[in-house]
Design a protein that fits this description.
428 residues; Triger factor/SurA peptide-binding fold; Chitinase A, domain 3; 3 domains; five-stranded antiparallel sheet; 12 strands; 16% strand
Length: 428
Amino acid sequence: MKKMTLIILLSFFTTILFATKTDYIIAKAGKDIIMKSDLQKQIIQMKNAKVWASDTTAETVLNDMIEAKIILVKAREIGIKPDEQKIKNIVDKQLASVKSQFPDESMFFNELRKAGLTVSDLKKYYEDMLTDQQLKEQLIQTQIRKKVQVTDSEIKQYFEDNKETILKDLKKYKISLILRNVKASDKTKKMAFNKTLEIQQKIKKGQKFTVLAKEMSDCPSGQNGGDLGWFSRGMMVKPFEDAAFSLKPGEISEIVETQFGYHLIRLEEVKGDEIRASHILVKTDPNQEDFDNEKTTMDSLLKRIKTGEEFSKIASAYSEDDSSKVKGGVIGYYSVSEFPELFSEEIASINDNEVSNVIHHENTFYIFKKDRIDDHESGYEDFKENIRNYLMSKKQTEYYHKWIQQIKTEFYIFIYQERLNEFSQEIN
């Protein structure tokens, strides 16, 4: 399952809540119905997850949804049950992952509240999705995979017919890198501190905390006057928490530093073990000067490599990727099809035994080296299992399409074509 941020989830939850005002049935599959909002949710989810292809249409998505309904009914008919404990473990990890994308848990809970959702709503969404996926996987395993076989003669024939293409993938490369992150300099941090000091002085002179939060805070909570809502101990990073819980209602803290930047915190209310606080945040993110300085450093390292210094020694001395720098920058051995996905094109374009230019991605700079490993004799046995897996997957796909068409004849399926056409025009 692809990772989805809470913002993505909220985007389609909010759209669905709005859509239900004019909701209607768009298709029937057996005893199940598919609403316009169901189709809308699926499409928004696909687009946010970047799996919406140029040739995808509302009709193809609807047909996939109908197939999924049928598969789930069939799975339950033959007694397939989901592994509830496994699903619970995955859901717990996914929720933790979503929470980690927010500076603190209070912002996570605030975003949920804004959309009229609870953690239970989010858990149920993940549980339903994973249950459907697991039932479908088990059904395909029992009804399709066990009935498909690939013989050694088929594997041999495929190898002989495609030997030239297959052997191209034999080439292996040792890939190394130098990685350096752009960090806020002492100068940048001092500028952020001085800005926080300026805000603090304005508060002391009588300017309203909420107004300054809206005008000067780098936290999304600034739009709400800095209000973070209610939270208890253990929900915030420790320096922030220690300062917030030491205040009295209406009191404003001194400047507090965390990994996010500098904070001014005001305690609003106390209720049992929980408090409600507001804050103004001045981030200590690197600025353009910090990026320029790091780029200059990387350019100088590249120049040293190109004038003869060993890549491995420079990687060991300057790279900030701990796992590879101890190995002289080596990250692994790959064929062309196995190159790290994010930089596959850049690495593929490097000449054998040469280095890349400096590559910039987000807050990090990279230099890659691609060393060709000497060829070795290879033949049928080296590729036998890979070919078996490929042919097995191909046969399973073909069998699945025949099987699902047969299963569909057992169900009453009806698509309201005019409604589908109308909906398709709405989303185009």
